[in-house]
Structure to design on (146 residues):
């Protein structure tokens, strides 16, 4: 099908001297890259990223819909990669896990523990305070201290 997607970019998106593409505030914590030629790179602050990422998903969805209606008219649009240090993304991810658990696809204890450990390791890089629900997730899924 050649559908374009949003996938993870492992590089650190934090740039304290760059202005947000949405509000102009100094200091960005998220980056979205469209792999077109030339590439389009958008950078956002912690406040704007939740809205910007939703707009990005909506835009991609609209392109998919358009292509479904006329699959031969346009070439597959280039994909995106995103990287952020936003707690918003972590809470969304934890919501997805909770939803898939409800649907019967329960992640194993090992998987949950490794997710908790990864969040814990990166916590200092994230913008702002850790949300209570994330702290609870880490507490519930971390192995007891030796
Ligand atoms: Zn902003």
């Amino acid at each position: 099908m050649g559908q374009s997607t949003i996938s993870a970019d492992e590089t650190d998106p934090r740039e304290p001297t760059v202005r947000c593409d949405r509000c102009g505030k100094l200091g960005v914590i998220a980056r979205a890259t469209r792999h077109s030629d030339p590439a389009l790179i958008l950078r956002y602050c912690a406040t704007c990223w939740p809205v910007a990422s939703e707009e990005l998903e909506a835009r991609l969805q609209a392109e998919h819909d358009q292509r479904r209606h006329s699959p031969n008219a346009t070439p597959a649009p280039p994909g995106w990669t995103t990287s952020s240090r936003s707690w918003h993304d972590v809470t969304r991810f934890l919501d997805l896990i909770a939803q898939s658990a409800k649907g019967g696809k329960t992640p194993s204890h090992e998987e949950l523990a490794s997710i908790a450990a990864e969040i814990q390791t990166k916590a200092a890089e994230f913008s702002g305070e850790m949300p209570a629900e994330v702290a609870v997730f880490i507490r519930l899924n971390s192995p007891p201290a030796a």
